[in-house]
Design goal:
heterodimer, A: alpha+beta, five-stranded antiparallel beta sheet, four-stranded antiparallel beta sheet, 9 strands, B: mainly alpha, 39% helix
């Protein structure tokens, strides 16, 4: 039976929360596999495990619950080993490396900020601040919407300007928030956000970050800012 | 310790909170070469940079349409959420940026574990929808469609 691996904690006999439920249906119980001064959080890996939401959430939940009382080095979802022996071997062979990473993450947690624009508010602002765009839009309206070519030209200029504003706002957000964190990493752009910023902070230092996000929100209504945390330090596992 | 809760997150519904967090679960965290990885087939949607689609005819026309709909006489400070503006400008959009924001009037629980589990209780989806809730699901669908049209791929 394959072994699913959630993450790594330091210490030979970690007190795991009781009844920790892992991946699978029914959820497989989570236990520790020890090698020296490191312990891997593992469970049985169900046959045909897929990235279902339920299992992604189980992975997240195990790391979050354990992370409330100790530092966890989170593995990426879907890491599967042939068995406990292999897990011990990996822990033993890279022990110093993993211990070093755990030391660096000790007492710290990740917050993730994603930003999008409230499109109506952004477009209003662009039309307000860019006379050329306002003129194009007004001409289209006067012409009952405008010709296909005119709409295309207008839309292209809007898109360029939106891109420009995204870059500006990305700088604003990053420059405002990153000084409040020990480290920050930009995540990949994807659907639904133009900023994907992960911040590593001390557990006790998250308040200023939350306040700064609230400040950005109230100062810039066009920004839709989503702050998530505390999270396992997924984005800071590499030195 | 600061736990980001409904009050703190404001906009962005529980659904986008979920999507925001699962992106991290899937894409980050330590990879150990000695361990095999579960196949992630069916969730490439997360990998698609739909924002490339911003430079497309569809997007240009949608922006022009959105500008036509805005009342140019109204100042930029006019509050969002006017019934005739909400959502419809973005329904066919590639990015649907406002949709998540404006649909977020519901409860936004972003505390990654308990809150999301509450949001999802009793629902399970097939893998390709694993990372999407009702709202992000439809967004993912439209994004995928747009991406295909534009020749984008994972």
């Amino acid at each position: 039976m394959n072994t699913y691996v959630y993450g790594i904690v330091s210490g030979g006999h970690p007190e795991l929360p009781s009844g920790l439920a892992g991946v699978g249906d029914p959820p497989r119980p989570v236990r520790g596999v020890r090698a020296g001064e490191l312990t891997a959080l593992v469970s049985e890996c169900p046959e045909g495990l897929r990235p279902r939401r339920r299992d992604l959430l189980a992975h997240q939940r195990v790391l979050t619950e354990v992370g409330q009382t100790r530092t966890v080095l989170p593995l990426r979802f879907g890491s599967v080993s042939a068995g406990e022996g292999d897990v011990r071997e990996v822990l033993a062979s890279r022990a110093e490396d993993y211990r070093e990473r755990l030391r660096r993450l000790d007492g710290r947690t990740e917050y993730n900020v994603k930003a999008a624009h409230q499109e109506d508010l952004l477009l209003r602002q662009l039309l307000d601040e860019e006379p050329e765009l306002r003129g194009m839009a007004a001409a289209n309206r006067a012409a009952g919407g405008g010709s296909y070519e005119a709409r295309l030209r207008t839309g292209e200029r809007v898109a360029e300007t939106v891109r420009d504003r995204e870059e500006r706002d990305a700088r604003l957000i990053t420059q405002t928030l990153s000084p409040l964190a020990e480290e920050h990493r930009m995540g990949p752009e994807s659907g639904g956000w133009f900023v994907n910023l992960s911040l590593l902070v001390h557990r006790d230092d998250a308040e200023p970050l939350a306040d700064a996000v609230a400040g950005l929100r109230s100062a810039h209504p066009r920004l839709d800012l989503r702050l998530n945390g505390p999270l396992p330090p997924y984005s800071f596992v590499e030195p | 310790m600061t736990v980001v809760t409904t009050e703190r997150t404001g906009g962005g519904g529980g659904s986008s909170g979920l999507y925001d967090v699962l992106e991290l679960v899937l894409d980050r965290g330590l990879v150990i070469d000695a361990f095999i990885r579960v196949s992630l087939v069916g969730i490439e949607i997360l990998k698609i940079d739909v924002r490339v689609v911003v430079a497309s005819v569809d997007t240009y026309l949608r922006f022009a349409e959105a500008c036509n709909r805005l009342d140019l006489e109204a100042g930029p400070r006019q509050p969002a959420g006017l019934p005739d503006l909400v959502g419809d400008a973005t329904e066919s959009g590639a990015r649907d940026k406002t949709k998540g924001a404006l649909a977020g009037a519901g409860q936004a629980v972003s505390q990654a574990t308990r809150g999301i589990t509450d949001t999802l209780r009793g629902r399970d989806r097939e893998p390709e929808e694993a990372t999407a809730s009702d709202d992000t699901g439809s967004r993912a669908g439209s994004r995928r469609g747009t991406a295909r049209k534009s020749g984008e791929s994972a």
